[in-house]
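Two folds, back to back.
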Amino acid sequence: MIHLIVGNTGAGKTTYAHELQKSTNGIVFSIDQWNNTLFMPDKRDTDGLEWFLERIERAETMMLEMVHQLEATNTDSILDLGLSKYAHRKKFRGFARENGYEVKLHFLDVAKETRWQRVLERNKQKGATYQFDVSKSDFEFMEQWFETPTQEETANGVVVRG
């Protein structure tokens, strides 16, 4: 099964993904970790959103190849990729459908104020889920970027309110 972890910045996606891993014995793919390890060392100040999106696309191509291998061994894939846009989520639902894989969306629906406080704490503590600081402007950008999952998307999924 493919688990799609969805939520805006600070919703607790990575923490949730690792908790889910314990109950499914799945493998977690966290895009923030991939980006921080593979791409951030090469980022220049002039590199913007398009630079990130292209690298995310490359990372996801590799992840999907790994999902095929995991499905062949009946191992769950837990995709902590942000999945902020409907079209992005649709891509993974389509991948699952085309390959006959089960998919479940997990939407972490957490109030903006709570999420911002979590981000501030994560920036300060630099704990287990920390990959990089999130600025107030980045947080606010994501508020506008994020598209809440539709009822259709969450119909057979899990909605966690916090």
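---
second:
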Amino acid sequence: MRITFLGTGTSSGVPRIACDCDVCRSTDPRNHRLRCSLLIEHDGRALVIDTPPDLRTQSLRQGLRRLDALLFTHAHADHLYGLDDVRCFRLEEREPLPCYADARTRERIAVVFDYAFRGGHPSSVPQLALHDAETPTTLWGLPVQPIPVLHGRLPVLGYRFGRFAYVTDCSAIPPASMALLGGVEVLVLGALRHREHPTHFNVEQALAAIATIGPRHAWLTHIAHDLDHEATEACLPAQVRLAYDGLSLELEP
């Protein structure tokens, strides 16, 4: 299984519009962060988690040629509003693209992208099939375990794939979900900035959650312009690193 970070930034991306801070003006490419999305390649198939507004740019940059399924964490704009661009992956396909999400996100997709469900031509509208992501499933032999977490007061989903787990927008992990993360060897967890935030872990809170879960390696994502890559990594434990756009990892499922 190969994972690739298509985007590691927060809702505004980095550089942020109309900002002249040191990180936004940085020439370090690891400080250039598109909105959060993850590519998982397994058994010749491609699965993407979330469709941010940057999905077209991410797909072209990655050279992504196929897409077999989507998973959604939640329905906020920075994780959903690039969904229309997936139509380019289904122009030669007869079957709609499977989209796995919780009930709230499926409802939002049906409203925001209502035109996708009216039978339009594949060149004009995305061909989508909505599926429940709130119960475990298996895709091409890859186990997919939803991990319910809280994003402020909003219930959202992280996902576990065997020994790997991905949890982005998160401010609390309930005990039952902590149990679901037990034994994970590689964890991706959101860490917005150093200062506290009402709906996201900051770095200190993310490190505390990582210490409780106990993975061998952890990567921080959903990063704001408050965090310079090099300076932040210098303060992290050896087994915790900042993810960056384009980073790829080979993992055992």
